[in-house]
């Protein structure tokens, strides 16, 4: 191979004969020359490699036993590249989809250098030497004596005095070892996998040549055809309203289901939720993690943080008439859409929203009449009972497809003759049939039982005005009917309930009245009625049950001067309930006392009121001036600890209000069809702190004790004034 000129000169100097200095040690270069004279055909680096294999023990070498030295350590080399990608996909025109690539190149190139060395014996090497004027190297074979004599001259040569020469390396006392333990030079060669080429060919799409000339007549004909199609569509739309009212729901169904997306409905629903969670990510973060730190400086007052706003375009013009959270799926809630303007009654809608997708409802059920109330079953969360403006009640099953209810009352099955204002699920009867109760302006409180494919009704109460008598058609005197507007069952005593009327009174009663049949005592301290199969608690065994109601109530409260909009029992304390009315007041009652314990004037008509599920002393109310009021009697018994407007327009009226069973949020509905979710600040959901060395009792006991303490203070103050 061709080398620089100084290497050639060095090789020429080695070939000259010099005398050896007596007494001098033979060096590596002299031994190499001797090997050349003895005819040993070895390379220049052979002796250097042999010298590198000399075993020299350094001072800091680790001492190993014979067993450790003889231990074999196996290393396996593979041809697979650990950094090679494994998930490469390429589009296959044959199958019209993306397919993973099976063959991946495993070769990894660590270093590439393009050299310019030329072999000295090649024709190109000779031409280069001739061009540069370098004489060709002549090798002479001398005797051993001659080689010894030329060693001093070689040592004095300037070429050999370079720091990287062999002689300079031999003068060093310590040599740099490759490894301080046992080093043996080994070499391995891996087999490179043969390269394979894989290719595919797809068929090109079919092509066809098309040519046409567009003139004035063809353009005119195209416009005429389009106008004819539009006229036919208008005629079809005019013919549709002439059908029966029962077909209106089917018409709306065809509009929403014009295209069949059933195959990808689940995937598109999940994708829509993902997009909405990314869109409203900041709101989701506030819902999960944000806590208003400024509550520490507000002197026990709190705020409401607006979160999502729910609306449905096809429900514009309708008011929010009912709200109810699902007890099993805590992110899902139902909204009843109707109208409180009775001169503009029309269709209604039942929609279900979820916090995971605030942009569009999860379920949509259009109705022929406006929805005024609804309730979701506690155990079977797919059953929803709905009351309508036309007096019908219906039960929807979310598991079944279609927009029609699975149960619906008719004139033959005992439907109400006036709007249904309140509806509530109750525990199953003795035959494990689901049942619910409804109250209406016709003065009836009706029990509805789901038996096979029909609704079986039973009139529980007929409300009447005490002392007011009207004449019937035959001249007989009949008690005047009172209009029921709200009712609620006791949370612990499921047979005890309250009914609010349009006249402002609240009646307390139970599900049993007088009867002519005897009762048989049971072992558990309750009685079992033989005429209606109801189980009576102890203390009511002397009273007898009947489906025909006696006009006497257990208690009647002169609650408000206008219609009672809502009445609800406390979640914890068994004696306390709350009521609100359009007379601007919210009142808290002890059902054993005829007078209210607390009265709050909110300076506007109150649309709804609700107890908080996490505290016995916290409740919220909404008024028609667009303000949400939150009270905590344990902190302030005289005024609200939060009063906040949550509407954009001043004329917007809030209609309903509901706490979430678990999460610290509330939903508020208005008369424009919007539902707003709000998060409670820490001051609105405080829990009692335990004193040092004392343990707090369980939560229900704590809540009952909180309310009982307030009631005892009020009773003591009343007795002192008397």
In short:
With 722 residues, this protein is an alpha+beta fold. It has a domain at 276-512 and 549-688: 7 Propeller (Methylamine Dehydrogenase, Chain H).
Tags for this entry?
4-stranded antiparallel beta sheet; elongated; alpha+beta; 13 helices; disordered N terminus; 722 residues; 35 strands
Could you walk me through the main structural features you see in this protein, from its secondary elements to its overall organization?
With 722 residues, the chain is of the alpha+beta class. The protein has a domain of 377 residues: YVTN repeat-like/Quinoprotein amine dehydrogenase (Methylamine Dehydrogenase, Chain H, 7 Propeller). The strands form ten sheets. A four-stranded antiparallel sheet has the order 3-35-34-33, covered by helices on one side. A four-stranded antiparallel sheet has the order 4-5-6-7, with no helix packed on it. Strand 8 and strand 9 form a beta hairpin. It is found in: Cytoplasm, Cytoskeleton, Cilium axoneme.
Main beta-sheet strand count, sense and barrel state: 4 strands, antiparallel
The CATH H-level superfamily of the domain at 276-512 and 549-688 is YVTN repeat-like/Quinoprotein amine dehydrogenase
Under CATH at level 1, the class of the domain at 276-512 and 549-688 stands as Mainly Beta
SS-based structural class? alpha+beta
How many β-strand runs? Answer: 35
What's the CATH architecture name of the domain at 276-512 and 549-688?
7 Propeller
Mean pLDDT: 77
Strand ordering within the main sheet: 3-35-34-33
CATH topology of the domain at 276-512 and 549-688: Methylamine Dehydrogenase, Chain H
Number of helices: 13
Uncertain segments are 1-43, 139-160, 513-550
Amount of helix: 10-25%
Proportion of beta-strand residues: 25-35%
Radius of gyration: 48 Å
């Amino acid at each position: 191979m061709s080398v620089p000129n100084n290497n050639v000169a060095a090789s020429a100097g080695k070939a000259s004969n010099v005398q050896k200095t007596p007494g001098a040690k033979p060096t590596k270069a002299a031994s190499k020359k001797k090997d050349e004279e003895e005819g040993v055909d070895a390379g220049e680096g052979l002796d250097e490699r042999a010298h590198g294999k000399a075993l020299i023990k350094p001072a800091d070498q680790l001492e190993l036993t014979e067993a450790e030295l003889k231990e074999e350590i196996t290393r396996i080399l593979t041809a697979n590249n650990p950094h090679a990608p494994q998930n490469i996909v390429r589009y296959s025109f044959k199958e019209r989809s993306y397919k993973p690539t099976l063959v991946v190149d495993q070769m990894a190139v660590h270093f590439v250098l393009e050299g310019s060395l030329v072999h000295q014996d090649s024709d190109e090497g000779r031409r280069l030497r001739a061009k540069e004027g370098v004489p060709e190297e002549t090798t002479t074979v001398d005797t051993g004596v001659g080689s010894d004599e030329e060693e001093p001259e070689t040592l004095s040569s300037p070429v050999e005095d370079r720091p990287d020469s062999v002689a300079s390396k031999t003068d060093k006392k310590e040599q740099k070892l490759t490894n301080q333990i046992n080093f043996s030079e080994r070499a391995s060669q891996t087999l490179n996998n043969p390269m394979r080429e894989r290719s595919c060919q797809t068929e090109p799409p079919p092509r066809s040549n098309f040519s046409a000339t567009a003139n004035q007549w063809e353009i005119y004909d195209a416009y005429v055809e389009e106008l004819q199609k539009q006229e036919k569509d208008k005629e079809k739309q005019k013919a549709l309203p002439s059908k029966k009212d029962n077909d209106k729901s089917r018409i709306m169904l065809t509009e929403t289901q014009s295209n069949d997306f059933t195959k990808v409905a689940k995937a598109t629903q999940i994708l829509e939720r993902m997009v909405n969670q990314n869109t409203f990510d900041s709101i989701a973060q506030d819902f999960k993690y944000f806590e208003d730190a400024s509550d520490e400086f507000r002197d026990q007052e709190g705020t409401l943080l607006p979160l999502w706003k729910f609306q449905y375009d096809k429900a514009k013009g309708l008011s929010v008439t009912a709200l109810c959270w699902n007890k099993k799926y805590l992110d899902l809630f139902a909204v009843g859409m109707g109208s409180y303007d009775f001169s503009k009654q029309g269709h209604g809608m039942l929609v279900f929203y979820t916090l995971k997708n605030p942009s569009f409802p999860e379920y949509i059920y259009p109705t022929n009449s406006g929805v005024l109330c609804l309730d979701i079953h506690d155990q079977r969360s797919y059953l929803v009972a709905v009351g309508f403006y036309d007096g019908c009640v219906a039960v929807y099953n979310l598991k079944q497809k279609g927009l029609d209810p699975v149960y619906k009352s008719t004139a033959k099955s005992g439907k109400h003759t006036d709007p249904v204002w309140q509806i509530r699920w109750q525990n199953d009867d003795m035959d494990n049939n689901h049942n619910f109760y409804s109250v209406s302006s016709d003065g009836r409180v009706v029990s509805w039982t789901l038996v096979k494919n029909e609704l079986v009704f039973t009139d529980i109460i007929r409300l009447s005005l005490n002392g007011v008598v009207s004449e019937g058609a035959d001249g007989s005197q009949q008690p005047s009917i009172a209009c029921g507007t709200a009712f609620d069952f006791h949370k612990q005593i499921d047979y005890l309930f309250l009914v609010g009327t349009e006249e402002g009174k609240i009646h307390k009663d139970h599900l049993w009245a007088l009867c002519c049949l005897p009762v048989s005592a049971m072992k558990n301290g309750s009685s079992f009625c033989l005429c209606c199969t109801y189980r009576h608690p102890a203390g009511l065994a002397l009273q007898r049950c009947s489906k025909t109601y006696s006009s006497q109530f257990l208690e009647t409260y002169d609650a408000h001067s206008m219609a009672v909009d809502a009445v609800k029992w406390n979640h914890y304390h068994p004696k306390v309930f709350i009521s609100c009315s359009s007379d601007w007041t919210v009142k808290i009652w002890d059902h054993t006392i005829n007078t209210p314990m607390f009265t709050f004037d909110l300076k506007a008509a109150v649309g709804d009121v609700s107890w908080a599920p996490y505290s016995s002393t916290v409740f919220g109310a909404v008024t028609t001036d667009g303000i949400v009021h939150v009270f905590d009697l344990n902190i302030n018994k005289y005024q609200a600890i939060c009063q906040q407007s949550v509407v954009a327009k001043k004329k917007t009226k809030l209609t309903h209000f509901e706490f979430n069973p678990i999460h610290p949020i509330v939903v508020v509905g208005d008369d424009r069809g919007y539902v707003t979710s709000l998060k409670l600040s820490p001051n609105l959901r405080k829990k009692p702190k335990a004193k040092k060395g004392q343990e707090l009792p369980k939560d229900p006991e704590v809540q009952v004790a909180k309310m009982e303490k307030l009631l005892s203070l009020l009773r003591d103050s009343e007795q002192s004034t008397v």
